[in-house]
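User: Please run a holo structure prediction.
Assistant: Happy to. Please share the sequence and the ligand.
User: Here you go; the ligand is magnesium ion.
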Amino acid sequence: MSGSSNDPAVATTNLPAFGFETTLVDDVPGVTVPWQGTHAPDPRVLILNDDLARSLSLDPESLRTPDGAGVLSGSTPSAEAASVAMAYAGHQFGNFVPLLGDGRALLLGELHDDRGHRVDLHLKGSGATPFSRGGDGRAVVGAMLREYLISEAMHALNIPTTRSLAVVTTGERVLREGGPRPGAVLARVASSHLRVGTFEFAARREGLAQPLADYAIARHYPAFVDLPSEDRYLAFFEAVVEAQASLVAQWMSVGFVHGVMNTDNTTISGETIDYGPCAFLDAYDPATVFSSIDHGGRYAYGNQPAVLGWNLARFGETLLPLVNSTPDTAITALTAVLDTFGDRYRQHYSAAMARKLGLADDGMDAALVDDLHRLLTEHRADWTLAFRALADNLRGSSAPFDSLVPPDASANWLERWRTTVSAREQNLPSVADGMDRVNPAYIPRNHLVDAALNAATEGDLELFDRLLEVVMSPFDRRDDRSDYALPAPQNFSAGFQTFCGT
Ligand code: AMP
Ligand code: MG
């Protein structure tokens, strides 16, 4: 994209080199604009992910210095690479917006993780950019800690996600509804920030779609690089459809509601991105919506697979001219791949449910899962607690599940399930232990997240640190953490809403 950088200041840090690379800027300059973060008066590291830093060969101690905080806030330019804002388009709640882009974010550069994979180091809240569209380019400490907490919890749940490296306070106050709040920048790490929206942007510019697709293939699906072009882009589409089908099945299995599944928040890598109005279910109900702006329930928990299918159709459209120069041939080929999405999703979800219920995946009785859904919905049972309670049931303790669904309602289903489990494996306690390895005892419960972020906004991080520690070991039930496993009080859940872009 053409455009000039804002005031490229001279680097002033004494930090060891990050080792930034800039392959996106070098190979596909048309989707980036060189841009520098806004000056932060007093950048300080509020929280740093030491393990993640080390896995990127970064030294946590130097990141904690004023120089480190300067770079991680976008305030101090790194000497190695010019930061850029990325351009993208996107369908927001179904409406096409031709230019969105990093309105408050910057790509600092690319690094390698400890498996040798290329990752982006990206900032959110680093100031206005050419894509800000009237927004202030800022972020506040509560919302950035929220993304830090929930993305790291998702990682601990073994769900593909962007990671959080640090939250840095800027020393500035940011005006939000409800008053001024402490400003902050999140430094996050992703296998890339290419989205369906990046392709929607490129498809509308001469000569940009193919270099972008080739770049994405080389970076994320290198096995297809040498395929002839008539196969390469179709294979690429199929790989993204598969990665996203698997991802949304995993969201569904832990009760995660993303909240704003616009096409600009759907990655090419298959990682979860952008933790704005997301939240976890407590009572199981497919109609659950947390986001204050999702009036029609488009992004309700139970709609997520269908919405993802819709987003992937928008992605497929951007690849039409690359797949075949004859539109009808390209449409037929891409549609055939898109049509596999539903089956792929169902297979991933069924496999996840089989693991959650201690069953074999092959030939699992779909009615058993449907009937469980019905029972849990009818009794507003807590989704997370239900699976740990079922494992307890196999160990001979029926009280936990009975407290979620009355025994007269559940007896028939429990009998069917136990019969199916025992037909495969007689050692029920061992099945229960296997279930506990995939069913979290702890998720970031909405009331706990709320309390932790409110205290953190007032400067007290104790609740946040404790909650982070709990959700980072989600499968290890501990007596001294039993409060963290409990659902929110009913009066909290009834009025609970989340907010976008905060
Ligand atoms: P999100 O809801 O975080 O996916 O953001 C959607 C779009 O709004 C992206 O283009 C963001 O860069 C932009 N955006 C969100 N918040 C702000 C802000 N405070 N200032 C400028 N742009 C923003
Ligand atoms: Mg976004």
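The radius of gyration is 23 Å.
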